[in-house]
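FW: tagging you since you asked about this chain on Friday. Here's the raw sequence from the shared folder, copied in full. Didn't touch anything.
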Amino acid sequence: MTDLTDEGQQIHKLINMFLNVARRGVLLALFVTLAACGKRSPQTGVLASHRRLTDQQIAGLTSKKVFFGHQSVGNNIVQGVRDLMNADPRLKLNVVKSANPQSISDPAFVEFEIGENGNPQSKNQAFAAVLDKGMGAQGGIAMYKYCYVDVDSSTDVQQMFESYREGINTLKAKYPSLKIVHITVPLTTAETGTRALINGMFGRVTTQDLNAKRNVFNELLTKSYAGTDTIFDLAEVESTHSDGSRSYFVRDNRKIYTLAPEYTRDGGHLNEVGRRAAAERLLQVLSTL
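HL: got it, structure written out here
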């Protein structure tokens, strides 16, 4: 009986040793997963150094008429434009809030909320409706952006992009003198690899999942228009740290870019630093047109 007890104790010790090894294996796997999340890419981004707008860029901006259709993150960017104007006395833009840009004859930066968040098709239609009032025929620069909430778990990204492209093609054909600027979908911060893994195990949609879909849309947009049209790559700005590295996680050997945490307070909208960075890059892009 004693022999059996001793043997049982030995078996118990062996089982514990096995479980400890297994636990270390799980921890190692989790460590590898975490190491692949929230990395800083060494590549140089658009914000490697924040440069003030040049005199030439400012001169170009003050002679242009621009319409910008947006929602909440767009409001952040517009506030960023105002921040830049307050900080730089050379920058004197006529920033106007209006759904009727055709009624403004002088150069101006006209902005207004269009469509409904969560419904990208409503933004396609609202943008076209604004231009059909008269600015499309007048010419100038026009652009609109989706919000991060326009991409959810049910979004067919390919279909969303095809609808966008169809609408843009129609506007280009109707208004050949109008310059349209394309804007990538903004991003959000993403949970850690461990939290994403746990959420995934319970069948929950993760912020990593949604950012992956936003990245797909942005890849479709940039591949379609790079080299032919002007693109304001908002997602690149949002995911680029001030040192030029990128915020991302790795999935299926692909980098999925995310909003840099220092640019936000709530994980999606832009704070003072983020909105200024985005506004600065937007004005640089517009100054080239």
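FW: Confidence is low (pLDDT under 50) at residues 1-5, 21-37, 42-50.
HL: agreed, and The first strand starts at residue 39 and ends at 41.
FW: great, closing this out.
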